[in-house]
Amino acid sequence: MKLLKISKFIGLVAISMLGLAGCGLGGESAAKENATKVSAPAQVHEDAKDVQIGQFDIDHDRVRLNSGYDMPLVGIGTWAISDSEAEESVYTALASGMRLIDTAVVYGNERGVGRGIKRSGVPREEIFITTKLWTPDYEDAEHSIDRCLERLGTTYIDLLLLHYPAANDEKAYQAMERVVKAGKVRSIGLSNFFREDFDRILKMAEIPPAVDQMETHLHHQNVELKKYLDSCGTVLESWFPLGGRGQTEMMFNEPVVQKLAKEHGKSPAQIILRWHLQAGHVVMPGSTNAAHIKENYEIFDFSLTEDEMQELSRLERNALYGGY
Ligand SMILES: NC(=O)c1ccc[n+]([C@@H]2O[C@H](COP(=O)([O-])OP(=O)(O)OC[C@H]3O[C@@H](n4cnc5c(N)ncnc54)[C@H](OP(=O)(O)O)[C@@H]3O)[C@@H](O)[C@H]2O)c1
């Protein structure tokens, strides 16, 4: 992968081109205020210098973040799987071509993720690791980040998120900003921050959140939140992309999903994941099944028409399955 260092100036120009009119403080002042907030140095693909922040490049499996770094669009999730399962899943995902890995302190499997990466032989710079600080970590976030690095066996984290809004989250966000400057973390963001909490962080942030990871699937599509995040230059990442453990069969058995799977010669999971991509959500389905992991990355050789996207979008039920 050819990489090119670009200057802070290019990052600033890119974010100011976004026109953050609907975001945070609102209007022109928001655009000015946010434009001055991007300070991370950036490494970007040489052939993608003109790409706008938040614009999905499905053909190349990447989206440009507000940090200037590119994030893959499809990866492996590791919630509710053991350390040794995480090692296997990450190893299989990397062997299948996926380059995005999602873990968290509270999953207790960062060491397994690190072992899977090491075993894969894939160069570190090709891999995008996301981890999340758990709420008790917020009190002394810098120390917790050092422990994440040690468990993952890496010198930097690609994307670090605050897992939930909680006491000391603003203090922890400021600590994340400091570690970006120290080079230990490349991009920072949030998870489970609905609009009000998202705005609270945005207002105090020097570096606006690159990503908000939220429960997002056919039955809860987050259309309004997505529009708002777009206006802030923040990428929406979906957790429970297949509905989550226990709900996947219900999702796969939706008649329209079944129909489209037959018509495209794809599995129901592939139809749903492709819908996410075209709707502009980064996805990292969880799996310990090698065939499923491989299948989940085979979604770049077909596309859904606008009518098919709309048929799927009509499955919205405003139903959350994660219990928050
Ligand atoms: N930020 C947060 O608060 C938060 C919360 C929850 C999750 N997450 C992240 O989001 C990731 C995704 O969520 P999730 O794993 O909970 O739910 P999910 O991806 O919606 O669903 C996972 C389930 O789907 C099955 N599955 C995966 N691919 C399949 C395929 N091709 N065909 C059939 N079944 C398939 C898996 O079973 P098999 O193992 O049998 O494939 C597993 O039971 C998590 O792993 C985690 O990294 C974040």
Layout of strands and helices, then pairs:
Layout: E1 3-6, H1 8-17, H2 27-35, E2 42-45, E3 56-57, E4 62-64, E5 70-71, E6 75-77, H3 83-95, E7 100-102, H4 110-120, E8 128-133, H5 141-152, E9 157-162, H6 169-181, E10 185-191, H7 195-204, E11 211-215, H8 223-232, E12 235-239, H9 248-252, H10 255-264, H11 268-279, E13 282-283, H12 290-296, H13 306-313
Parallel strand pairs: 6-7, 7-8, 8-9, 9-10, 10-11, 11-12, 12-13
Antiparallel strand pairs: 1-2, 3-4, 4-5
Helix pairs in contact: 1-2, 3-4, 4-5, 10-11
The protein binds NADP nicotinamide-adenine-dinucleotide phosphate (NAP).
Please give the radius of gyration in angstroms: 19 Å
Q: Could you say which structural class the secondary elements and strand pairing correspond to?
A: alpha/beta
**Main CATH class:** Alpha Beta
> Which cofactor or ligand species appear?
NADP nicotinamide-adenine-dinucleotide phosphate
* Major beta sheet, strand line-up: 6-7-8-9-10-11-12-13
**CATH fold descriptor:** TIM Barrel
- Which CATH architecture would you pick? Alpha-Beta Barrel
Mass-distribution shape: globular
CATH superfamily: NADP-dependent oxidoreductase domain
Secondary structure tally, helices: 13
Average of the residue pLDDT scores: 90
Q: Uncertain spans, ≥5 residues at pLDDT below 50?
A: 1-19, 26-32, 34-45
